[in-house]
Amino acid sequence: MEIVAVVNQKGGVGKTTTTINLATALAAVGKEVLVVDLDPQGNATTGFGISLKRGHGTYEVLMGDVRADFAVQKTAIPGLSVLPASPDLSGAEIELVPMENRELQLKKALKSLSHKYDYVLIDCPPSLGLLTLNAQVASNSLLVPLQCEYYALEGLSQLLNTLQRVKKNLNPQLELMGIILTMYDTRSTLSAQVAQDVRSHLGSRVFNTYIPRNVRVAEAPSFGKPVLLYDMKCVGSQAYIQLAKEILRRQGALLAA
Question: What CATH class is the domain 2-256?
Answer without folding.
Answer: alpha beta
